[in-house]
What does this fold into?
Amino acid sequence: MRKHFQTLLELRKQKGIKPKAKTPPKWLFPTNQEKQYDKILYSLTSELKKLIKEILVPEIPSMIDEVNNKTPNDRNDDYLDRLRGLIIYIGNAIQNKVTESIEKSKVIGIEIARFNKKQSEKVNYSIFGFDIFVDEPWLSDQLKLFSVQNSSLIKSLPEQELERVASTVERGLQQGMRFTDVSKEIQKSFGITHRRAKLIARDQTTKLNASLTKLRQEEVGVEEYIWQTSGDERVRPTHKANDGKKFRWDEPPAKTGHPGHDVNCRCVARPVLDKLLNLGK
It folds into this structure.
């Protein structure tokens, strides 16, 4: 704990201010922010799907005809050049949407930080008995890191989707697949991208929230926390085993790390306030 927080606890004692809670307030997960991020990425992947269906898919039958009409000695692979050209065209066409999604993701990062701050303020009020100002010089670096990581992840969504679709079409042409079969494979690829976008939204929300939770709790002297799961059927067995148990911030659980560290983890850390509530009594 920083020295000025110790001073505040002494001030609490001098003025006879009692802690506002004997049990730690519930530290909530930023569910709404996750949903907002999910919508942003769903909009991006839906736009990409639309471009592929409008620009690439109608060209596949003529590519199939071109392959079927080739003679054994014909080494002309114009259809592959056409395929690659269409993929590049779609990649360029989606760039404005990618840029828009990246900018919106930065706002989501700020909103996650604000939500987490409100959770922190609840804890601080419980400890000190009054509202306090906490300097957070590390916050801008946390948001910059979130922005850089998410920018890379967002860019990878159309890149990987277009690469997968190009491989699917090329394989279909070379193996003599029917148009309907190629279309079904492309549709499967759309599902992969949508699911990955949902994973990114949840995982990046949990990771930023977890990092800020740790920093903000440690800032005011919280050394321990109670592991709290989301309480639904999607909770991992290892995380369910941690539920309700006490851990130290400087000793993360070996199998799981702290809440939010594992991919897709929605668990949170409920602060243990016993020591702080007793200080200055």
User: Anything to note?
Assistant: The chain has a mean pLDDT of 89. Strands lie at 224-228, 246-248, 268-271.
